Amino acid sequence: PRFALVQQEGDKTFLAVLGGDPLYMPAMPTGERIELGDGVRLLAPVIPRSKVVAVGRNYAAHAAEFGNDVPTSPMLFLKPNTSVVGPDDPIVLPDWTIEVGYEAELAVVIGKVCKDVSPQNAMAYVLGYTCANDVSARDAQKTDGQWGRAKGFDTSCPLGPWIDTDVNPEDVGVVSRLNGETKQDGRTRDLVFDVPFLVSFVSEAMTLLPGDVILTGTPAGVGLMDAGDRVEVEIEGLGVLSNPVVRRA
Amino acid sequence: PRFALVQQEGDKTFLAVLGGDPLYMPAMPTGERIELGDGVRLLAPVIPRSKVVAVGRNYAAHAAEFGNDVPTSPMLFLKPNTSVVGPDDPIVLPDWTIEVGYEAELAVVIGKVCKDVSPQNAMAYVLGYTCANDVSARDAQKTDGQWGRAKGFDTSCPLGPWIDTDVNPEDVGVVSRLNGETKQDGRTRDLVFDVPFLVSFVSEAMTLLPGDVILTGTPAGVGLMDAGDRVEVEIEGLGVLSNPVVRRA
């Protein structure tokens, strides 16, 4: 796998291939340019070296749909790097759950080591944004109490299709579609805790490393999916993350 | 930092220095041998590439001391690799908590990639064991609901002093001491879910990577600690993990 700058030209997408890993060194274009498609595919734009920090109940309307109050401070949980997959990778439903749901989320990708940053300074540590699906086993989420298994299983964290460094996270649309039908349709202006606050809050507990990811919470409209479905997450102005859902034979 | 085999001779401890990282290649002794002490210290024996998976309420007497039932299946949560520190490293109390507790635990260190292993086969994937302190901000644990912050902050996962490959995890003592006074004194025979079951159960959700760690839960007797204290975790036949507690100025 290699890294590349993604360049849109009309309805075509080109990849300007980079040498090395741009998270840890300056972007070094190799001069090679490939059109996306025809045997070329995108992988997850980042596999965190350390962690995916996710935020629960960060849209009031979503908290309400499960009968929960809005938290007074961000409710943090972790997803392991082994849960990350990329565009078009299958979401594999585990044997131990019969209720798996999608959650469209704006994901923040950290660019620089940070600890104890203020909300005012937080955005300097953000590399960019991508789409995330915080896939959740609803039955295990309820019975387990802690969400390590229900939201941490392999393939439960699709990320992609790329990292966009130009998104303004203050007010973008966060949409999910199941088999083409719109299910969630929120906007980040309705986040209970906004991106600068979240980066600061997380950094007051945990050192954030380059490539760590913060999932900012999901808007109302969540539902279940099943084998054979295709689920999409779209962040306005960023792109679409699409994944098929399968069950192991 | 370098890896070494730890060799006890009487009351002296020697380090037989290895080349490379023995998690990823055969142990390669360099011939160099150093006595522990005199400017030589141990670091955390492993920093997981991926995750620390921890198990809540896995001793009935500990579940009862907080008024909780014993779970019907293991309650998993995650601690990030940024929370790991080693022997004698300070546990740094965060500004946002005034109630931080210790939890002595037997830690399982995974040696080989595994996914969907049975309890019968699980032990083949275990490299060895170490002592862990599942440091917990009790106030944030209650108010946050999910434990990502309360049990995931920097320095909340002391591990050490070394990885012991010869421990039989079926019935060893798990002790904590605060300033020399014994606080917890349990035995792993009282684990609700034993080590082979836990490795299997976790692997049915998440791929375990070499260096990943499973904290098996804490026995009854937990309590709080404060700046100036020294907390110790001892696993019978393995060793003692000792850490000072500090608050940032």
UniProtKB/TrEMBL annotation, chains A, B:
Rv2993c-like N-terminal domain boundaries: 1-45
Keywords from the named record: Isomerase, Metal-binding
Name of a matching Pfam family: Rv2993c-like_N
GO biological process: carboxylic acid metabolic process
Fumarylacetoacetase-like C-terminal domain segment(s): 51-246
GO molecular function list: acetylpyruvate hydrolase activity; isomerase activity; metal ion binding
Name used for this protein in its record: 2-hydroxyhepta-2,4-diene-1,7-dioate isomerase
Record organism: Promicromonospora soli
